[in-house]
Amino acid sequence: MLPRAKGGSEPLPESLTWLLLTGDIPTEADIAGLRKDLAKRSKVPDSVTKIINGLPKTMHPMSQLAIGTLALQEDSVMAAEYAKGTPKTMYWNHYLEDTLNIIARLPEVAARIYCNIYRDGKMNPSDPSLDMGANYAMMMGYDNPDFHDLMRLYLVIHSDHEGGNVSAHTVKLVGSALSDPYLSLAAGLNGLAGPLHGLANQEVLKWIKGIKAQLDGAEPTKDNLTKLCWDQLNSGKVIPGYGHAVLRKTDPRYTCQREFALKNLPDDEMFKLVSLLFEVVPAVLNEQGKVCLEAKEARESQR
After folding, report:
1. What pTM was estimated for this model as a whole?
2. For the chain, first and last CA: distance in Å?
3. 260-294: pLDDT as tens digits
């Protein structure tokens, strides 16, 4: 239903942004207008760039992102208008202005942090003629159209979060004190950085790469992966990525990315390893008694 980029297969992040803000499916004209508005807001102040460039490369990207967000707070419309005595009836407008400015500027902040850590500080300039996903990917140094489509997908499936998790709840909690959106978002990012929340993505990747290293060139099979999973559990560790506190069936974000991988990189070694673990791990955890049978049913429904 949501509009897609020309030649792409995934929804445009701008289209979901419009939907979340208005409740309506956008037209092409709506998307063009939103993109133009965000482009006008997207200039990151030099002072913020200087702060980000001064951070040590060894600092975790999430810590840097929180710092970058707080550095942007100097331009908060809500903070400035509140200091002037703005009436309560105008709070929503100031919050919206801040939110749109954050949406416009944060991709460059995040891309700069990425390039400082992984590309020796070399970052492509922002290109407002591109959609949000493609522009973000290009700033990080990726010009592959398929990767642009993947970035669109990734941004869309992570754009709407219910309020019960740590980060979303924290943003609402801090915002309830009339803290402006920059302060609220930075607080939420710090919650997201925890290993039982967003950092779990990193832990999963580290574990999968560790599994690959333990295989030492051997072809992954259900038997050797089952043994490695039991070794992990018997050592007193958990298997990261399984046992979500809220979701009792397969995370739909994984399902979307799995479908993309099946279409675009079905023979990738890492993806094939993940696919096999998707079959093996729930059975191991079910035998251990740590997961319900719904996990097995969800796995079978994906075949």
Report:
1. 0.90
2. 25
3. 999 999 999 999 999 999 999 989 988 887 654 44
